[in-house]
From TrEMBL:
Family the UniProt entry places it in: Belongs to the FGGY kinase family.
Gene that this sequence comes from: glpK
Domain Carbohydrate kinase FGGY N-terminal, residue spans: 6-252
UniProt: ADP binding residues: 13, 17, 267, 311, 412, 416
Function comment: Key enzyme in the regulation of glycerol uptake and metabolism. Catalyzes the phosphorylation of glycerol to yield sn-glycerol 3-phosphate.
Binding site residues for sn-glycerol 3-phosphate: 13, 83-84, 135, 245
Lineage: Bacteria, Bacillati, Actinomycetota, Actinomycetes, Propionibacteriales
Domain Carbohydrate kinase FGGY C-terminal: 261-451
Keywords, sorted A to Z: ATP-binding, Glycerol metabolism, Kinase, Nucleotide-binding, Transferase
Protein's recorded name: Glycerol kinase
Source species: Nocardioides jiangsuensis
Name of a matching Pfam family: FGGY_N
GO molecular function, one term: glycerol kinase activity
Amino acid sequence: MTDSLVAAIDQGTTSTRCLLFDRAGRMVSMAQTEHRQHYPRPGWVEHDAIEVWRNVQRVVPRALRQSGATPSQVAALGLANQRETTVVWDPRDGTPYARAITWQDTRTSALVAALRRGPHAETFRRVSGLSPAPYFAGPRVRWLLDNVPGLRDRAEEGNALFGTMDSWLVWNLTGGPDGGLHVTDVTNASRTMLMDLRTLTWAPELLATLDIPPAMLPEIRGNADLGTSCRTLLPGVEIGAVLGDQQAALFGQTCFDAGEAKCTYGTGAFLLMNVGQHVVDSAEGLLPTVAYQLPGEVATYAVEGSIAMAGSLVQWLRDSLQMIDSAPEIETLARSVPDNGGCYVVPAFSGLFAPRWRPDARGVIVGLTSYVDKGHVARAVLEATAWQTRDVVDAVNRGSGLGLRRLKVDGGMTSNYLLMQCLADVLDVPVERPMVTETVSLGAAYLAGLAVGFWADLQDLRKNWHLAARWEPEMSAARRAREQVEWGRAVERAYGWSPE
Ligand SMILES: Nc1ncnc2c1ncn2[C@@H]1O[C@H](COP(=O)(O)OP(=O)(O)O)[C@@H](O)[C@H]1O
Ligand SMILES: O=P(O)(O)OC[C@H](O)CO
């Protein structure tokens, strides 16, 4: 049978995956491999872009082999990627000028602090929708131009290309030095601090403020408007769609109507709510962002609350404190006690993201007494993810004018039933997990499949969403209110710990 599958690449923070899906949206096969995290200095987190591209070249054939499919059976390829991670490379031979600076890297803090104090902060917010923060890609480009010897000259000559991981991979998939396409999509571009969020074009005034040569920039395309095929790896297979991984998860969860929201719980946690065709103001500490743009249509927007630490706090408990041997063990430990014993953990290891945006905050554990044991700390670690989500949901409800009525969830942490119940309790809305939890890949596959007519329309995709588990709120309103106040007091203790 020809054209029976759609392939998706999920190039994430810790690993790269390739998944194949059939017409019912069922996962047919998956191959995954991790790449190395480089921490050359405190606050710096880098990836080797060559290693990432090599991993893509490994996982795609492995996923095909596992399924027994041939490339001719692949109707289209969708690509979803970790966002904001910044690569600058030489188009003459495909060599990166430096390791990729990842979204978790805080080296641009001083540059960003100066921008926030300066006269252009409001222009960034008004045009790109984003208040300057080290999270976004634009300041990283400037940092590279200032710190890699000779790079500015190379960039002005047209011999240095900037891209987030999507651009880097598409360029390699379409031939690399041999005519590779230098493009990005509207969702990834909306995380650079350089794009006008309404016109979906690069904003000359923002480029000028950061002194970034326009010759470095990829062309911005709609999510399913690349109109090109792979020349390497899957020769002839159309690259049907490209989009940021969290937007892909929103699409994979079929949140197509305004007010529908999902939260993905992996290393960090990312809650996105579809808000339709308007840009929500960032006043509540949320990020207005492009959700997706279908061919021939105007963009659909989302509002996002990004949480820097969720599953990574569980990893810290496992690897640094060695309180557990594996991530799932945290549930057993947390269930050994009935509550948190008055203990709260605020995981501000590199400051707090949405909705508070406090780079000066650092991690704290409060409420310690002789009564508190490992079980209470484990519970507080899980509750930290739930309460951080509550802070984001409160901001979303205030900022969007659309009340959250249920939350669709996915990601590695959703296998923790205690956490999922806790989430429903603190949010006071039902929490739902679908059968296919690889929603990033599914969303990329869906968009790619729509582009080539593998699926007919959004309604066709909705039919593929099946409920696997649902958690209803059980906590009393009085207890919820009391614990929310305590959480808020704990967060205040984290503020100002770092002199930054
Ligand atoms: N049962 C569990 N309870 C709590 N956390 C978990 C559990 N299983 C996995 N995790 C956490 O989930 C994260 C992995 O999820 P995943 O979606 O694969 O993340 P990513 O895509 O960001 O790499 C890890 O940080 C891990 O600590
Ligand atoms: O790769 P993930 O799943 O950790 O997601 C990273 C986000 O895209 C960062 O904004």
